[in-house]
Amino acid sequence: MDKKILRKEIQEKLKNISDEDRKSFEEIIYKKLFENENFKNAKCVALTIPFGTEINTYPIIERLLNEGKVVCSPICEKESRKMTFYKINSLDDLIEGYYGIKTPPEIEENIVEKNKIDLILVPGVGFDKNNYRIGFGGGYYDRYLKDFKGYTISLAFKEQIIEKVPINEFDLPVDLVITN
Asked: Is residue 7 packed enough to be buried (19+ CB in 10 Å), middle (13-18) or exposed (0-12)?
């Protein structure tokens, strides 16, 4: 099946999750993530700021900041399709970027180099049992992850798990998908 169609189908399912269910599903996912050894041992974690139907990452960011860990989030350059990760010092520092998505400010001294990131929480729309993902269609993460040496985890509601993600030669699986 075509990735565009799958993306649309999965996002429709996500829109139909009630607020109450969403909160309880997220709590289950957070608990599993917080118990994960790679998460516990990571000194620097990269993740996205939540948007639309994505899992709310604010509680994760708050926990990491409270534990004194380095937290960073990407800013995407549309022309080059390149991502640069910037340190988040506080949730209050976040500003509105493309499509209304919150980002850290683009301050050069806050750039976090790829080799300093221990764990990336990789976003996605859909995932299969082999940990392949359907992203949002830009290919940003597949490009970034091709030479990433750290650990990758994706957080997903059960509604995002499908039998098989159509893959091409550039698609890379994540190390682990945590779901409710």
From this structure: middle
Average pLDDT score over the chain: 95
What gap in Å lies between CA 64 and CA 48, rounded to an integer? 13
Q: Give the position of tokens 């764990």.
A: 119
Question: Hey, is 161 helix, strand or coil?
Answer: strand
Q: Pull the structure tokens for residue 3.
A: 């990735």
Q: How far apart are CA 46 and CA 161, in angstroms?
A: 23
Which residue in 118, 109, 167, 174 sits closest to 145, CA to CA?
174
Cα dihedral 169, 175, 177, 178, rounded to 10, equals -170
Per-residue pLDDT tens for 145-179? 999 999 999 999 999 999 999 998 888 999 999 99
